Automatic annotation (TrEMBL):
Keywords: Glycosyltransferase, Transferase. Residues 20-130 form the Glycosyltransferase subfamily 4-like N-terminal domain. One of its GO terms (molecular function) is glycosyltransferase activity. This is Glycosyltransferase. Pfam families: Glyco_transf_4, Glycos_transf_1. Gene3D superfamilies: Glycogen Phosphorylase B. Its EC number is 2.4.-.-. Residues 186-336 form the Glycosyl transferase family domain. It comes from the Bacteria. It is an enzyme of class 2 (transferase). It comes from Micromonospora globbae.
């Protein structure tokens, strides 16, 4: 395929990220498959990204994630500086067929503002679409900028203007799903795991409370704000509580972390994360928000671990209730479902991942969307005044036409 795509990952983390990094991990999973299919990829990221690509363009030498904890008036220029670099790159070359953008809000706004002479854009929505109502509610991509979701449920909750620009959804994938049904499966331990950044939407406080009430061992794996290890948070002192995620952990989760029934192990990555998930009895998702994508869900299934969770957001799309997991709308029932999930077959979870959540499946789907976006951008857009006006030719010309 003769296609050159500028993949805009943003300035926050390298690709692949050193540990936690949802969007950057998605890009690191997608790009190798696109290149295998013949797509030339220009990655717009930070200088220390190590993902093999055809070209790397960057403004910052390393990830700026730590800057996100600073006040807005000190950090607001970071994403804009990165996007300014992307715009300069697009202005100085004519070989980019499409921009695949992953930068929240400012990516969409900047690339839309470039005008008709810029390449077509597919902007992937990775987050809660209730955010940024003034941007999403008035979006006009000029026929050149389109969006996609990471689940159907995410798009169903989007503002109308955003849905009008949608070309569909693409579920997330994981390299762990490749040949997942053929790999040796480790023995299950006695622990349940909640994997992900610790914050109110992920519901770690609910999971910890249920662990004590029902009596199962729970491992919380993920960062708290900028702190990836328990010792880092312990050394940070009271100033750390200015971060809302830290405050949530200290006030709502930490009282249940006893080192026995409930443990917080910080960020886990690579083989350590895979082993933790693969040996877990259950991957628990005690969600209090509408999860848009669910990377940890597909990773759990690929590693043969059934999913138990609140039936919100993308979970009903990803989990086959009674076959690869158990879902409920009742928070109090969640603890009992953790125990009931022992009857589910880990191998069925792995087979489901192979069929639905491999990088190849995701890349093929994105290729289809790329072609759709390019065709839509090449179609002349009917001027808005012709679509909306009820004036006749006589009225507009001041007399007979």
């Amino acid at each position: 395929m003769s296609l050159t795509v500028l993949m805009n990952a943003g300035p926050w983390l390298s690709v692949p990220p050193p540990g936690y990094g949802g969007i950057e991990n998605v890009i690191a999973t997608l790009v190798p498959e696109l290149r295998r299919l013949g797509v030339r990829v220009v990655l717009a990221s930070v200088g220390d990204s190590t993902l093999p690509v055809d070209e790397l363009v960057s403004v910052f030498p390393e990830g700026q994630f730590a800057s996100l904890q600073r006040p807005y008036n000190q950090v607001c220029g970071v994403a804009q500086a990165h996007l300014a670099g992307v715009v300069r790159e697009l202005h100085t070359r004519d070989d980019i067929d499409l921009v695949h953008d992953h930068v929240e809000a400012v990516g969409l706004a900047t690339l839309t503002a470039m005008g008709a002479d810029a390449p077509p854009v597919l902007h992937t929505l990775h987050w809660d679409l209730a955010k940024h109502p003034a941007l999403y509610g008035t979006l006009d991509g000029g026929g050149r900028v389109r969006v996609n979701g990471v689940s159907a449920s995410q798009l169903a909750r989007a503002p109308q203007a955003l849905r009008d620009h949608s070309v569909g959804h693409v579920h997330l994938s994981t390299p762990l799903a490749v040949d997942a049904d053929r790999r040796p499966r480790p023995a299950k331990g006695d622990h349940v795991v909640v994997l992900g950044r610790i914050n109110p939407g992920k519901g770690q406080d609910l999971g910890a409370r249920l662990a004590h009430r029902v009596g199962f061992r729970l491992v919380l794996a993920g960062p708290v704000g900028p702190y990836h290890r328990p010792e880092d948070l312990a050394a940070a002192g009271e100033e750390a509580r200015q971060n809302p995620d830290v405050r949530f952990f200290v006030e709502e989760v930490a009282p249940y972390v006893d080192g026995d029934l409930v443990r917080w192990v910080g960020t886990v990555a690579g083989r350590e994360r895979d082993d933790l998930l693969a040996t877990a009895r259950v991957a628990l998702f005690p969600l209090r928000w509408e999860e848009p994508g669910g990377t940890a869900v597909v990773e759990s299934l690929a590693l043969g671990t059934p999913v138990v969770g609140i039936a919100r957001g993308c979970l009903p799309e990803l989990v086959a209730h009674g076959r690869t997991g158990l879902l409920t709308a009742d928070e109090e029932e969640l603890g009992e479902l953790v125990l009931a999930a022992s009857v589910l077959d880990p191998d069925e979870c792995r087979r489901e991942a192979v069929a639905r959540f491999t990088p190849a499946v995701m890349a093929e789907r994105y290729l289809t969307l790329y072609e759709r976006v390019r065709k839509l951008a090449a179609t002349p857009r009917r001027p808005a005044w012709r679509e909306e006006s009820h004036l006749t030719a006589f009225d507009m010309a001041g007399g007979p036409s």
